[in-house]
Amino acid sequence: MSCRCCRRCIPSTICGADVSDLFAYSTTKYIKIRDARLGLLHYGLMFLIVVYILVYQLIGKLGYLKFNDAQNTVRLTLQEPTQGCNPNDTGCKDNFASLSQLPYCCAQNSSCKTNSDGSCSCDYRTSFKDYNCTWLSGTDASVIRESSIVVATFIHEYDQSLNTTCFNSYPSAANNCDDLWLIQEKASLFAADVEAFTMLIDHSVTSPKSGLATTSRQMQGMLFVGDNGNDGDVSKAIKDELCRSNPKAVTAQEGGSSTDHSPCYVPPNSADGLDYFSVGTLLQATGVTLEGESYPGSGHSARYEGLTINLLIDYSNSRDWHGLQPNISYLYKPSVVPQSTFKTTLLSPSSLNGQQMLKKDIHGHPVACLY
User: Fold this and answer.
1) What is the mean pLDDT of residues 34-38?
2) Residue-wise over 72-94: b if at least 16 C-beta within 10 A, else e?
3) CA–CA separation, 310 vs 127, rounded Å?
4) Which residues in 60-217 belong to E strands, given as ranges?
5) Which residues contact 122 (CB under 8 A, 6 or more apart)?
6) Long-range contacts of 229-238 (CB under 8 A, 24+ apart)
7) Which backbone phi and psi does 346 adopt, to 5 degrees?
8) Proportion of the chain above pLDDT 90, given as a percent
9) pLDDT tens string 145-162
10) pLDDT at 163 over 80
11) 97-118 burial, b for 16+ CB within 10 Å, e for fewer?
12) Which of 36, 97, 114, 122 is at 20 to 30 A from 270, Cα to Cα?
């Protein structure tokens, strides 16, 4: 059959519409550009896209792997400074710094003047008020909660007595109880040498989907002292000092070289296979000092007001450009909540009938573990 016959079999219109328009279709038209410069640019960009996707994303950044969420449990324990021993052992001696070496403690000399609020003003610490200091054990200086711990730096103590006159008759509109508890301030105290306390971190991680489960005793970890570029001069100097003062500070978690400035990676101390750091080290890693102002206009130090620290534990069993690793590793990444303060209150009965209580307002820095 010829094409002329085929055209005769197909009507020219359907319902008044041109058949050629109804069954029209599109096709691609290619244009060849003969320009070496544009050609090199075109193929060069295509090559870079292939390299970025295949080499960097899939191979380097392990894009071919599927990552599962993990769950962890953490136990935090605080211990006072000792002479290298367990304070629970018989004969173990504490190793606190002398109060005369702590500039925030009221010293027994003529340069300190006692104020009416129980503080003192000393010539050698003019930015903030000093207070009497007290020695605390690790148990006394900590409030342990789920996956977090509060480290006491300043304590207000009050004696409070139940106002029995409020219960002599049923309160009415004409007989109100204005003071349920009669409160008398007892003491305002700094916790002595709190930076020298050590914090033990016992943690484990599980991944239900992959079936992985292990404890910190079976893993290797490091403390990351970061430098996000937004640190002020003081914060950067504090972090640099930590890296400089630790001879084991390195530039990378694996295969790094020695360094004396941040960012750096610092190995933890170990006791019975568990990690521990001094409180001062964790504070340095966040770039803060308890002797700095709590927040602009506060008039008090962070030691007085307290602050909040988050300790992120980053687990990994893979490594960029190397793929899966036989062992799980982790990084401690501490950070401070800017201009934060913290206080918690404890009550304990001081009489058998419960009508006298010892109230403690504990200012400090809670360390909350995340993953």
Assistant:
1) 91
2) bebbbbbbbbbeeeeeeeeeeee
3) 27
4) 71-79, 112-114, 120-122, 125-130, 132-134, 142-145, 148-162, 181-191, 198-207, 212-215
5) 103, 106, 107, 111, 112, 113, 130
6) 231/287, 234/287, 234/289, 234/292, 235/287, 235/288, 236/262, 236/287, 238/284, 238/287, 238/288, 238/289
7) -120, 140
8) 52
9) 888 999 999 999 999 999
10) yes
11) eebeebebbbbeeeebeeeeeb
12) 97
Q: What are phi and psi of 99, to 5 degrees?
A: -60, -30
CA distance 340 to 190: 19
Of 287, 301, 273, 295, nearest to 334 by C-alpha is: 287
Mean pLDDT of 335-345: 91
What is the b/e burial string over 349-365, where b = at least 16 CB atoms within 10 angstroms of the residue's CB?
A: eeeeeeeebebbebbbb
Span 69-122, pLDDT tens digits: 778 899 999 999 999 898 989 999 999 999 888 989 987 556 788 888 888 888
Cα dihedral value 174, 176, 182, 185, nearest 10? -100
Domain positions in the chain = 94-194+344-364, 196-343
Beta-bridge partners for 269: 276
Determine what percent of the chain is predicted with pLDDT higher than 70. Answer: 94
Amino acid at 137: S
Pairing of strands 212-215, 198-207: antiparallel
The secondary structure element, H or E, covering residue 270 is strand 269-271
pTM for the complete prediction? 0.81
DSSP letter (8 states) at residue 259: -
Beta-carbon contacts of residue 3 (< 8 Å; ≥ 6 apart): none
Of the candidates 84, 345, 106, the residue with the CA atom closest to the CA atom of residue 196: 84
Q: Would you call 70 exposed, middle or buried from its count of C-beta atoms within 10 A (0-12, 13-18, 19+)? A: buried
User: Scanning the structure block, which residue is given the tokens 């506060």?
Assistant: 298
One-letter amino acid at 299 equals G
| Residue where the block lists tokens 């304990």 | 348
CA neighbours within 13 Å on the CB side: how many for 320?
A: 8
